[in-house]
Design a protein that fits this description.
The protein is of the alpha/beta class and 297 residues long. Helix content is 47%, strand content 7%. The protein has a 4-stranded parallel sheet.
Length: 297
């Protein structure tokens, strides 16, 4: 999405932020545990967008589309009216988390900030819950959400949606760090400029080498998720990016058991390109290896 179009969309969205009138009722209950919402967690560039699309293609599950994220005031109404368009038929190339197309799955950044960062009243918190319940009823399955900033909202999400499930995706940290460095360069024009989520304390790393910064960013993100799982004991599923690339079908079958659902039949899961390849200089790669070894030691 170019900068002018993005700015226009955000301005329009600011006028349409709020709750669909259809959700404004007493707290609703999910029909079954198979309808419980699912949140994807992980470090940036860990394969979360690939997993997001793959889950939506493989199971009867719902999501917030780009159109729904653009018009939050009519989110549930849009899902009802455009139900036949509300599906993911193929895996699209994403642009650092953004998947193009009105009906494509969205990170819904502004919507989720509104839901989980604001000090909502108890009534408004119920409306957030009802949004997930009603969308799950429309699709007859769980609503799957992917926004990595939710790493910092886990307790808030759990308070509004105690039934929430979480999928945590991890990638080999060396290749994850390499991908983050490349993202910084492509998006900001420099590896020295921070990109994506900022765990508490990140300012203290800004005088360090960018290789250190991205490895620290991954490590701290993983720690936040790990601590939440350990203390909160939520229902969660751990998955490796490499598992998806090496054997997507078997991995999806295991997730289906956990989600209490089955893969769509037939489901032609194409062979995914394994992206864990060194594409930076060996000097920089060895620097990543050295810093990672020091952190682990």
């Amino acid at each position: 999405m170019n900068s002018i179009l993005k700015a226009t969309a955000l301005q329009l969205q600011s006028f349409l932020t709020g709750f669909d009138n259809t959700v404004k009722s007493r707290p609703l209950m999910f029909p079954t545990s198979a309808h419980y919402p699912v949140f994807i967690l992980g470090a940036p560039r860990s394969g979360s967008t690939l997993l997001y699309q793959l889950l939506l293609r493989s199971f009867e599950a719902g999501y917030i589309s780009n159109l729904m994220a653009l018009v939050p005031l009519k989110m549930v109404t849009i899902a009802k009216i455009l139900r036949s368009y509300y599906s993911v038929a193929s895996i699209k190339t994403s642009h650092f988390g953004y998947v193009g197309g009105l009906f494509s799955p969205s990170e819904a950044g502004a919507v989720q900030r509104f839901w989980f960062d604001n000090d909502l009243s108890p009534e408004e918190a119920d409306w957030v819950r009802n949004t997930f319940v009603l969308l799950s009823q429309i699709i007859s399955g769980p609503i799957i959400t992917k926004n990595l900033f939710n790493t910092f909202r886990l307790n808030r999400i759990r308070s509004i949606l105690p039934e929430a499930r979480f999928i945590h995706i991890r990638r080999d940290p060396l290749f994850n760090a390499q991908s983050l460095l490349n993202a910084r360069q492509k998006i900001n024009g420099s590896e020295n400029i921070w990109w994506s989520i900022k765990p508490e304390g990140y300012m203290r790393t800004l005088d360090q080498a960018p290789e250190f910064q991205v490895l620290w960013q991954i490590k701290e993100t993983e720690k936040i998720v790990h601590d939440f799982f350990r203390i909160g004991q939520p229902d969660h599923f751990n998955i490796g990016y490499e598992d998806i690339c090496n054997d997507a079908y078997s991995t999806l079958e295991k997730i289906g058991v956990w989600l209490e659902t089955q893969l769509k039949k037939p489901i032609p899961v194409e062979k995914l390109m394994f992206r864990n390849k060194i594409n930076i200089s060996m000097e920089k790669w060895r620097k990543i290896q050295k810093i990672h070894s020091m952190m682990e030691g």
